């Protein structure tokens, strides 16, 4: 009986448990600090969502484990970095409008460039290994090495300090609570991207076909839809999301370096395992859980910050091995 | 059979290392319902999947309206006007009934709207659950949705795999009625183990056994041949 109730309500129970857990730090942390940490956690979560949603969509529809996602993320960061270098005057201008314009241009350029890279990667490399996870891991890992080396060739092997649009580096001070403007931008960016993805998936015919493809690829083909074209499009969109995450995260962490993808790919996989592979909402919830818990634990028990997300992932795997949300939701 | 719309010649199909179809040949007439019958594992479903391009034909030829299609991709075959209802029905359970129909509609225009209206008259339950998740439908309703999706386009050939499987007898009658209506507009090729259903809708039969067609003819001939029924379909005469 208890087991049945737990199975039926495991998603709700886990989410409620997570909610209570996130209020617990209030016993140890001042409310003002808690608020600052919460905003930082939400911002980090939203940035992780940008990376993880691409991984999740690509796996959900195409059943492809794309280990090159981290390298695409790094490429996005570097393309954004180059746009900032080219339009330095707009970056340094004390104008919100110019700063936003250059930020949007950097994101657009990164998304387009990396989406094209994604199309090449899917057509040349990934298409050959559909249906074989082991080969996918090996071949996309190989692609990662090539892509990272290409970053070293084009941009050099050294770490670079990411240029931040002037007004983004400022803070608001609301009743002694310091709020970074860029973190608020990140939260809105993540929310907007989530909204756009949901809108496409739920309200357009293309999105409906993608959701149908997550459930039964053969049937989508038997209904006259070119699943391979759809795969290429989804892979490009996933790559574009990785690039968007790369630009936004590099401004957040103030640096770009060739291997940066590996660190965030690990986070992305933790997020999708928690949220459920193939679910965009799962990626959002998983990313927020990871972002918030990382920030609270880093403040309270700094040495345990990196491990807490792995611990959450293990607990979720034990309670609900498929993740919090089902694919296609 | 010169007026055949679909013709298979010596088709061989492998699933992994298993040689499932071992030279299947049959022809479906344009003015008849063709039924592929046989025991479990005879190769009936594999035949339909091979026609649809979901399984590659290792050898042999498949013609649709005289054109070779065995090398075409499934989406190209579907776009030629072939609708497919698989054995497991292939319902997108997380999508609503409406979304299932939208995915199936390749073109949305006045003609498709009229077709949809006609289909919803035929399967009124679908109208009732239009905004409901397809996964919540009953087995019979799911079968109706699967058939509805396959005929929402300008389908000239409908391949249906075991539509009576797992359905209550009363629902089987509903499905029989719907197939009898569909055959007025499209050619139907049916895979069926339920002889009652096969006899109710079929005109021609092909019996498959061990991946080959072993007997074919008119349905009435099969209905009267108890020896054939017993040998290949496992139907035994009930003694008075």
Helices of chain B, by number, come to: 10
Q: Note the main sheet of chain A.
A: 2 strands, antiparallel
Order of helices and strands of chain B: EEEHEEHEHHHHEHEHEEHH
Report Rg of chain B: 18 Å
* Low-confidence runs of chain B: none
Range of helix content of chain A: over 70%
- Assembly state: heterodimer
Helical region count of chain A?
14
Beta fraction of chain B: 25-35%
CATH architecture of chain B: 3-Layer(aba) Sandwich
| Main structural class of chain A | mainly alpha
How much of the sequence lies in strands of chain A comes to under 5%
Q: Assign the CATH topology of chain A.
A: ABC transporter involved in vitamin B12 uptake, BtuC
Can you give keywords for this protein?
heterodimer, A: 329 residues, mainly alpha, ABC transporter involved in vitamin B12 uptake, BtuC, 14 helices, 4% strand, globular, B: 240 residues, alpha/beta, Rossmann fold, 6-stranded mixed β-sheet, 10 helices, 37% helix
Indicate the topology.
The complex is a heterodimer of chains A (329) and B (240).
Chain A: H1 2-8, H2 10-23, H3 31-62, H4 69-86, H5 88-92, H6 96-124, H7 133-155, E1 160-161, E2 171-174, E3 177-180, H8 181-203, H9 205-215, H10 217-222, H11 227-253, E4 255-256, H12 260-275, H13 280-300, H14 305-319
Helix pairs in contact in A: 3-8, 3-11, 3-12, 3-13, 4-6, 4-7, 4-11, 4-12, 6-11, 8-9, 12-13, 12-14, 13-14
Chain B: E1 4-15, E2 18-29, E3 34-38, H1 44-52, E4 57-64, E5 67-68, H2 74-79, E6 82-85, H3 97-104, H4 110-122, H5 124-128, H6 139-151, E7 157-161, H7 169-182, E8 187-191, H8 195-201, E9 204-209, E10 212-218, H9 219-224, H10 226-233
Parallel strand pairs in B: 3-8, 3-9, 6-7, 7-8
Antiparallel strand pairs in B: 1-2, 1-4, 4-5, 9-10
Helix pairs in contact in B: 3-6, 6-7
